[in-house]
């Protein structure tokens, strides 16, 4: 069974026109560049980036956390990170 780490409750009802959800596995070397490129998009109504790390063994979660928001009041409100855990 899979479960996710907590995503800030305020992120649940989207206040953005577009939500970009990115599954991440062994993406430590490329996720920063991808997030940077997505941040440059000009979307009417704005957009959010949700990174979902799938137990990647290469440090992807740490990179995602540096690139995203991991808790209320921290980072960029357009970004969030979830960690998928397999039981």
How would you characterize this protein structure?
With 87 residues, the protein is α/β, with parallel strands linked by helices. It is built from two helices and four strands; from the N terminus they run E-E-H-E-H-E. Helix 2 links the parallel strand 3 and strand 4. The longest helix has 9 residues. The mean pLDDT is 81.
What is the structure about, briefly put?
Helix content is 20%, strand content 29%. It has 87 residues and is of the alpha/beta class.
Low-confidence stretches: none
- Taking all residues together, what is the mean pLDDT? 81
- Category by helix and strand content: alpha/beta
Give the biggest sheet.
4 strands, mixed
Q: Which strand-content bin applies to the residues? A: 25-35%
Question: What's the number of domains?
Answer: 1
How many alpha or pi helices? 2
- What's the arrangement of strands in the largest beta sheet? 1-4-3-2
Task: Set out the fold topology.
Layout: E1 2-4, E2 18-24, H1 31-39, E3 47-53, H2 60-67, E4 79-86
Parallel strand pairs: 2-3, 3-4
Antiparallel strand pairs: 1-4
């Amino acid at each position: 069974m899979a479960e996710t780490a907590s995503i800030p409750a305020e992120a649940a009802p989207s206040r953005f026109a577009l939500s970009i959800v990115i599954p991440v596995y062994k993406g430590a070397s490329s996720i920063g560049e991808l997030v940077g490129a997505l941040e440059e998009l000009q979307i009417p109504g704005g957009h959010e980036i949700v990174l979902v790390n799938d137990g990647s063994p290469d440090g992807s979660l740490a990179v995602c956390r540096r690139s995203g928001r991991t808790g209320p009041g921290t980072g960029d409100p357009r970004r969030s990170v979830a960690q998928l855990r397999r039981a």
